[in-house]
Structures are given as structure tokens and as C-alpha cells.
Specification:
InterPro entries: DHFR-like_dom_sf, RibDG_C. It is built from 1 helix and 3 strands, in the order αβββ.
């Protein structure tokens, strides 16, 4: 039985679940800032494909990107 879980700001848990193929959908909020360094979200994760389902732009300049795991 599938269970809905929302994870905010925990790259370690996301990496573990992604490597096991347990995440069906990804929602990314992109903020228009260029940072020279940062913590990668998908460090040590096996490569997989995503299909873009939806985008939404906000007046702030942020963009919401909604993806599902490529089938």
C-alpha cells in the first residue's frame, strides 16, 4: 500500500530513498540565485531519469518544478 511522505530539507533521507527507487515524484522549488558552492541533493545516488509533469512560476521569481520518475 503506497504512503504519501513529504520530505523538506533532508538530503540524506532523499538520497537513501532515491537509491532504493522509493520516490515516485519530486517537487523542486528553484530560487533564482547563483551560489558558487553548496550541498548537492543527489550526492552518491544512482542515475535515474525524470519526466517533467508541471511547472509554475511565481512573482517572486521562484519556479516550482514537478517531476515523476521516468517509467
Amino acid at each position: 500500500m503506497p504512503v504519501d511522505i513529504l520530505i523538506l530539507g533532508s538530503g540524506t533521507i532523499v538520497q537513501q530513498l532515491a537509491n532504493e527507487g522509493l520516490i515516485d515524484e519530486y517537487l523542486f522549488i528553484m530560487t533564482p540565485v547563483v551560489a558558487g558552492e553548496g550541498k548537492p541533493l543527489f550526492k552518491h545516488v544512482k542515475q535515474f531519469g525524470l519526466t517533467l509533469l508541471e511547472t509554475k512560476a511565481f512573482r517572486s521569481g521562484n519556479v516550482l518544478l514537478h517531476y515523476e520518475l521516468k517509467k
